[in-house]
Task: structure prediction
Amino acid sequence: MKIEISEAVKYIGVDDKTIDLFESQYVVPEGVSYNSYLIMDEKVALMDTVDARGMKEWESNLMEALGGRKVDYLVIQHLEPDHAGSIGRLVELFPDVTLVGNAKTFAMLPQFFDIDLEGRTMTVAEGDTLSLGSHMLNFVMAPMVHWPEVMVTYESSEKILFSADGFGKFGALDYDDPEGWACEARRYYFNIVGKYGAPVQALLKKAAGLDIQMICPLHGPILKENLGYYIGMYDTWSSYKPENKGVLVAFASIHGNTGKAAERFAEMLRQRGVEKVVVSDLAREDMAEVIEDAFRYDRMVLAGASYDGGVFPCMQDFLHHLQSKAYQNRTVGIIENGSWGPTAGRTMKGILETMKNVTIVDPMVTIKSTMKDTDLPAMEALADAIAGA
Ligand code: FEO
Result:
């Protein structure tokens, strides 16, 4: 796809619209892009390669953009194979290329790729620069956003931040997302980078000292306008602050009865004027989408069926995901269902109690098999507590 960046900076990335699961875990119904950029100056620098799945098309884009010139430097900002997967091919095409990375990049690269690094590397550290002629690359280390070797690059003549996975989103570039940037960028952020809020905050602090006019991420669209909006979103997300007031009601139901209780509870919240109420069936909906909503809103209610002395597995899985993504600073209510000794409530509560600054509100509601009128007072009391939180 032809994407204009500037006279000297060319987009040579590719769309992948046939991958079944990104990272073998995330559905990408509108595909994903592997972005790669070429900076043409006295010296030519390539900013990352692409996943091996897109190598052929990328090579063709690269050769066309080069117009007979050769690549002098390959800047490796991130080693994950969705970006580094074509480094071997680049070295075959341009054996004299210098690979630019940091100490961690070159320590890890041989674990993934069989590439002879002898005499081919330039190791950079925080604050180092590389002149291409009129363009100047400034290297900024971004460890654990979301891998240890990650770095970003600020090109100071055109004021472009090459941001690695930062500010990336799911969706091929030729797909005009009617929901805008935030929906799929948020799902990408919380599921892939969510655990690493503190390193993202550290990077944002460094970025605040730069005059950025354009952001070129490794996935998703190039951001040219209103950059404060995107940076503000990343600040909210990485500081674990809720983005919107609202309640996610997530249920795990075996035969539908816990689901009915969850729907009824959501209605009670709406009647109380709660700004936004989202109901999600954990057995059927995209787990990554539900994780995204859990972080988006300030409150969450879990409705789970008891199962094998614990909670129905999709709820256990959901809570495991939230735990590993450092879910925190939220208010949570619990509805459990059990036909004989209910165990779901204490199981969910036990996991929530391991999380930082999660307030569990009373009462915990217990339903026996199906919701009855006698359950309504407890549900109304929980709805009052959640609506008022
Ligand atoms: Fe897009 Fe972390 O790789």
